[in-house]
Amino acid sequence: MLTEVNEKIRAAIRRPSPGPLLNLxxxxxxxxxxxxxxxxxxx
Length: 43
Prior knowledge:
By secondary structure, the chain is mainly α. 58% of the residues lie in helices and 0% in strands.
């Protein structure tokens, strides 16, 4: 799911729309998975 979001963010950065800047950057998927695992606690 984050891979798809990152693809959309990268596409938006490559083709900026008129108006204010997006101020987006792709997610660090490995960091997000690590954070998710830490929040779940030991199995």
